[in-house]
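Listing S7. Sequence submitted for prediction.
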Amino acid sequence: MHLVYPAVLAALLFCTGIYGVLARRNAILVLMSVELMLNAVNLNLVAFDVWLSRTAEEKLHSGQALTLFTIAIAAAEIGIGLAIVLAVYRARGTSDIDKLRDTTEGHETDGPNGNHGPDDNGDDNDSGNDNGPQPPTAKKAEATA
């Protein structure tokens, strides 16, 4: 088999992965697109390893060994990535990447004038009154309710 076939397939897989990373808004679909790109790299590693081992008559298959390392790294990446996505989903209620711009805890999305919520004093407690900052116990009770 010619080297062109797996190389073209790998290029198509990689371009599909890039499109998925750039166009998707769901974090899980972005992780799947990253996996497509890693699989394209793995396909190239194995194809070039087979092609070079035929021409050089060597017995060491370094491309296939690198592919095993890449698979191990991809498995770790997807495990950690899914754990982060699930933690963010539990905290925020969405996995939409555009809505996760503000990653600091306690801030809601900015209003039309750049304020942080219903009260415009900027103290991050959205109780609706402008009596100043509340004691920590009131914020804690408000957070658990």
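Caption to Listing S7: primary sequence and predicted structure tokens for the chain studied. The CA atoms of residues 14 and 37 lie 5 Å apart. DSSP finds four helices and no strands in the chain.
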